[in-house]
Amino acid sequence: MSSSFTHRCLKMLLAGTALAGSVQVSTAAPTRHKHHASTHRTASPATTPVAATAAPVAMTAPRPTPAPVMARSQPEEIAVTGRSSRTRQPGGGLMRVETAPKAVQTITHDFIAKLAPSVNLQQVIAMLPSANVTQADPFGLYTGQTNIRGFDGTEVGWLLDGAPLNDIGGGQFYANEVLESENLDNVSVQPGSVNIDTPVTSASAGMTSMTMSNPSHHAGGIMDVSFGSFDTFRQFIRLNSGDIGNSGVRAMFAFSHTKGNTWRGPGQAEKYHYDFKLVKDFRNGSHTGLTVAYNDQTNDFYLAPNLSQWRTTGYSTNYATDYVGPTSAGANYYKLHVNPFENVVAVLPTHLVITPKLTLEDSLYFWHGIGNGTGASVINASTYMGNQAVKLDLGGAKSVLALAPSNQEQFRTGNTIALHYKPDNHHDLTLGWWYEYANLYQYSPYGIVNQATGEANNIWGTTNTIQTTSGQPFRARDFLSLTQVNTIFIGDTMKYFNDRLNILVGFKEAMVTRRMYNYTPGTQYNRNLHTPEPLPQIGILWNFNKHHQIYVSGSTNFKAPSNTSLVDYYGTSGVQTQKGGASKPEYTIQEELGYRYNGELIVGSISFFNYNLTNRQQTLNYYDGNAGASYSQTVNAGGQTTRGVDIQLSTRAWHHLRPYATFEYLHSTIDNNIRVGTDLLPTAGKIAVRAPSKQAKLGLDYDLGGFWISGQIMYVGKQYASFMNDSSIPQYVTNQVGIGYRFKNAGFMKSPQIQLNMTNLTGAKFRSGVYGFTTNLNATKGVNGTMIAAGNQPTYYLNPPFSAMVTLSTGF
């Protein structure tokens, strides 16, 4: 736990080195190949080689030469500079030259190193054209929200070094729990497509893959310490072993501790994070290794306001600072709305050269998470558990204020194995299998609260819980879901005409079996779901010369139904609030046409896309006053059509400047009317929620080697918060700036640096994202003439105010 002996020792170690500065560098040596929903935490290539480079993989030219004419990047100039690396990446690291026959958008460490070091992955990708990112806080301690081309983050596969990170139940991804920015080498978004060997079941909108930085070939490390707004304080250290003799082994270990107050209302967030990576290289080109990321975090929640609250209390909206007693008002006390969570992901990727023509890729992974999101409510001694009346042991009281956590514990283990066979210079054949078994246990106990102080005896909800008079644990929900995935895939990458023509064809059959066991009285004990999905894909790319290429791609993707869609729910009044049942998976057919230009100065791309989605799964968040907690319900929103264009334009270094510009036009519409009760809402043709029609972003990097400045500005258009488009948030503009100076080496300090990062420089106040949407804000006449009552009010994210963070860093 966060109070462990290990944490205390590391905090003392860092306190002694704080003034020395900071961490993480891109190595000079080249490499060789919550905000949890308080409802239920229920949430590039799949086998990234351990020593894979961040640069695009060169395509093999047929013999005899001439040389291939594929687009390729210019050699990079790399210099170790403490936290950051000075390279020649286009757009200051916001764009990389790509060669895949599909849309790929990549951000490199060149850009990441100039952000505040505490940022999470969502904040890193915010400048990409296809990403619509809403921040919950300025420093990455809370997960916000990411939408990719109008699809939410649960419809995107998220991977770290080939290991899937989505919640196996609902597909949620928590960006604040994964990887520290100093250890993030690069992140690539593939909007609309996944690779045939990608191990994901929640990827109807594509995938995002991140790579942990490899350990350096030289012993040493980096340190940084940061101070920021809202009493935020952070320390980080990374240690590199360097090459260990002639063993071919090198490793790195990193630790960080971050703590800060919430930017509105009472509360704080604190996390301890550990990253570890080991690489083993063999003389024949084989390599293996181990990647581990562990996170231990406890956050006080932010209250997401509805429009009425926003208009009334604005940026003061949050949970109560003071406890007012064991009443329904006392349930609003901020110490009863906490999110503790621990998770670890480990992956062991291996690249084995069997013969010059035959190689094997294997990626074994494990993921474990445990924690909750808490709420509170007043419960009576006489109540219901499921549909069964029960008496609670409340120490003689008729009612008490109780903690209402939504607990989960999740285990995921799996393996992806693939054989690659190159019979000649034109083909690269792939045959593989992905298997995963996941165990997800979710339950909602009621915890004992000190009625005088309002503090819970145990925020984890694992001890000091309320029992029935018969000694049975009292739980609002209690179920186990077991998920088994088998996916077989086959593909071929073909290259002709001296690599001018590249063709990728692939097919995989994904088979997902989910078994659910509900232990709540009155519910159906067992429901099972088996989902077989055929998933073909094709990509064709033509290189006119080293500067110009055009590609066309077609792919199919899917998202398995949420495990909670199989569950029956009851409130504490004994009334059923959800009836579970088998639902259909989302299925997407996507086509894309793109053009790329890779010039000596200018690099650009444009991609036109079209999606046809069936069985759109949408999660409606609602608050159950009886249970004192938020819950969510998955509904089938039918079909959706999404069309648009993404544009990226950047330059290489020109007079120390590297500008970047991007634009997206998006037209995402609901294809059908949506059933509500016995009638249909007239939603056909309405704009999808969280799908702004326009986004525009500008970035500028100016780097003299010593002094540097990096700034970004983002425009996001109007977004709807209801299926009926009768609720929305207006367009907005936000910005961020980073300024730094690199000093010369001094003693043991290599390239020490001071850095200032600022966000929302104007201090603008606005709603920046839709937290929970609704079917219809206003009463609406249905297709069949029935007056459909107004739904719940949507809730919103608020844009964090002006914030600043100063970081001192150094290599050693």
Provide a descriptive summary of the structure in words:
It is globular, with a radius of gyration of 26 Å. Helix content is 3%, strand content 50%. The protein has 812 residues and is mainly beta. It has four helices and 49 strands. The chain has a 22-stranded antiparallel β-barrel. It has a five-stranded mixed β-sheet with strand order 3-9-10-7-8. Strands 4-5-6 form a three-stranded antiparallel β-sheet, with no helix packed on it.
- N-C termini distance: 30 Å
Helix content: under 10%
Uncertain segments: 1-81, 621-631
- Mean pLDDT score: 88
Rg measurement, Å:
26 Å
User: Per the principal axes of the C-alpha atoms, what is the gross shape?
Assistant: globular
Counting DSSP H or I runs of 4 or more residues, the number of helices is 4
Quaternary state of the chains: single chain
User: What structural class is derived from the secondary structure elements?
Assistant: mainly beta
Number of strands: 49
Estimate what percentage of residues fall within beta strands. over 45%
Sheet having the most strands: 22 strands, antiparallel, barrel
List the defining traits of the structure above.
mainly beta, 22-stranded antiparallel beta barrel, 812 residues, 4 helices, globular, 49 strands, 3% helix
